[in-house]
Design brief:
This protein is mainly α and 69 residues long. Helix content is 46%, strand content 0%.
Length: 69
């Protein structure tokens, strides 16, 4: 998805749901729904995990070394 966003110059917006998820109205307007985990995570942690996953995807696309190899 990240490579498509970069190619198309798309500016994604992420909505982080509460413990009960997002309202149906929000989900119906979404172009895509993604889940980071089946766990219920605190909002602060979700922001960090999302940022890390986006950085990880970008670094893989840019062929940067991410892991210890």
């Amino acid at each position: 998805m990240l490579s498509e966003w970069m190619r198309d110059a798309t500016h994604p917006v992420f909505a982080i749901g509460g413990a009960d998820g997002l309202a149906d109205a929000v989900k119906q307007k979404a172009a895509k729904l993604v889940s980071l985990s089946a766990l219920t995570l605190p909002h602060g942690l979700v922001r960090v995990v999302l940022a890390e996953q986006l950085y990880r995807a970008w670094s893989i696309l840019a062929r940067h070394p991410y892991h210890r190899e």
